[in-house]
Amino acid sequence: MKLIVCDSYDEMSKKAAEIVSDVINENPSAILGLATGSTPEGMYKELVEAYKDGKLDFSKVSTVNLDEYVGIDPSNPQSYQSFMNENLFDRVNINKENTHLPKEIGSLEESVKAYDKLLAEIGQRDLQLLGIGPNGHIAFNEPDEKLNMHTSIIDLKDETIEANSRFFDSKDDVPKQAMSMGMADIFNSKTLLVLASGKNKHKAVEKFMHTDKIETLFPMSFINLHPNCYLIVDKDAYQG
Ligand code: PGA
Q: Does residue 60 carry a pLDDT above 90?
């Protein structure tokens, strides 16, 4: 694992955007696994700037996202689909037909199967972007005795609902479930790019730095198993 400690959120975002840009410039048809949340917003801004400056071309890029809330329409401003449209897809020359998020089609069971089928068809990604939760979750794979290998419906932990309530009018409005890629799906990528920013991630980052155990109760620990993983953190996440 390559640890990169940055002085600031901006530096972390620039560094992450550089790694993503290198992947796209090396392979214009790159398949990217993308993530939502406040952590990657700065990185997406950098990518949009690079596109506007003529340094990046998304026309052949494909994307798959880690997760989406259950019970929220894609057109809802709080959906992860809306987040991706606002932060990237509407701002660059990506073909929206090549962008994918988990979505509800028929029953939840059918929706899960459909996303697994899509992931199997898409195959290995060139890069998978990841944030971490304050409790060490990755995507919505929450700390638990067992973790899912493939796409699943996850009951969100109270701490995750609490952390995500900042995007909603009230905690009661936060969806209680999400559809999320599983651990095997996340790891099916040539490169993992994990970002952590801010003091509220310090506990998880510190725990990660001081353990040599892989624990399902601490999903972030699994990133140690990936042969080509970058962990980019800012000073607040690193030092607290
Ligand atoms: P955040 O979320 O980037 O909004 O902090 C990351 C996560 O919970 O995985």
A: yes
Q: pTM, whole model, 2 decimals?
A: 0.96
42 lines ligand 1 (CB under 6 A): no
Nearest ligand 1 atom to the CA of 132 is: 9
**Ligand 1 center from residue 87 Cα (angstroms):** 15
How many angstroms from the chain centroid is the CA of residue 149?
16
pLDDT classification of 159: cutoffs 50, 70, 90: confident
- The crossing angle, in degrees rounded to 10, of helices 41-52 and 9-26 is 50
User: What order of strands is seen across the sheet that includes strand 229-234?
Assistant: 2-6, 229-234, 189-196, 125-131, 31-34, 62-65, 99-100
Which candidate, 163, 221, 143, 161, places its Cα nearest to that of 38?
163
Task: Give just the sign of the alpha carbon dihedral 40, 43, 48, 49.
Answer: positive
- Bridge partners (DSSP) of residue 152 are 180
Does residue 141's CB lie within 6 angstroms of at least one atom of ligand 1?
no
Strands 152-155 and 177-180: antiparallel
Residue whose C-alpha is closest to residue 104's, from 80, 137, 128: 80
**Planar angle of CA 154, 159, 165, nearest 5 degrees:** 90
Instruction: Give me the sheet containing 177-180, strands edge to edge.
Output: 67-69, 177-180, 152-155
Alpha helices in 53-105 (DSSP H): 80-84
The gap from C-alpha 73 to its chain's centroid, in whole angstroms, comes to 20
Of all residues in the chain, what percent carry a pLDDT higher than 70?
Answer: 100
